[in-house]
Amino acid sequence: MDFQNLDRRFQLMLPSGPILLILLIFAPWHQFGSGPYGISSSALQAPNALLGIVALLTVVISLLISFAQVLGSDKLPESPQGKSWEEVVFIVNAILLASLLLKLILETSWLGWGAWGCIIAGAVHFYGAYIGKKSGSTNQNPNP
């Protein structure tokens, strides 16, 4: 698998997905205090932990579908409700971005650098899904 020969959506989604996973799990979404006495919480912790967990699950689903498409679309079953897999990934990524933005909006005090990193990585991931939906390619081999 040559990264340079992949579709643009995969070039955006495959690197940003693992980065987003790491940021969701380990980066400080909220930082209370500073210095050695500061306390930080990741996106999976309170407040609004459910939104962080939804974001984590949608990233995992999106990455699994994307990796299956890169490795060969013949391994994927029929997509649900007659939609293409590109549309499914787009909807999943819309839920991802909505959950991140809602988590950001609901609690804006004491935001850490992880919140902004997650928003940026989530936006890049969503843009990759948007490119895939716009192209609408359902070819059997996404590698040209």
Q: Short description, anyone?
A:
The chain is mainly alpha-helical and 144 residues long. It is 60% helix and 4% strand. It has one domain.
Description:
The protein has 144 residues and is mainly α. The chain has one domain. Helices cover 60% and strands 4% of the residues. Strands 1-2 form a two-stranded antiparallel sheet. α1 runs antiparallel to α2, α1 runs antiparallel to α4 and α2 runs antiparallel to α3. The longest helix has 23 residues. The C terminus is likely disordered.
**Low-confidence parts lasting 5 or more residues at pLDDT below 50?**
139-144
Give the total of beta strands: 2
| Structural class computed from helices and strand pairing | mainly alpha
Strand order of the largest sheet: 1-2
Report the average pLDDT across residues.
Answer: 89
Q: How would you describe the shape?
A: elongated
Radius of gyration: 17 Å
Q: What is the succession of H and E elements?
A: HEEHHH
Strand residue percentage = under 5%
Measured between the Cα atoms of the first and last residue, the distance is 11 Å
Largest sheet: 2 strands, antiparallel
Number of domains: 1
Share of helix among residues? 55-70%
What's the tally of helices?
Answer: 4
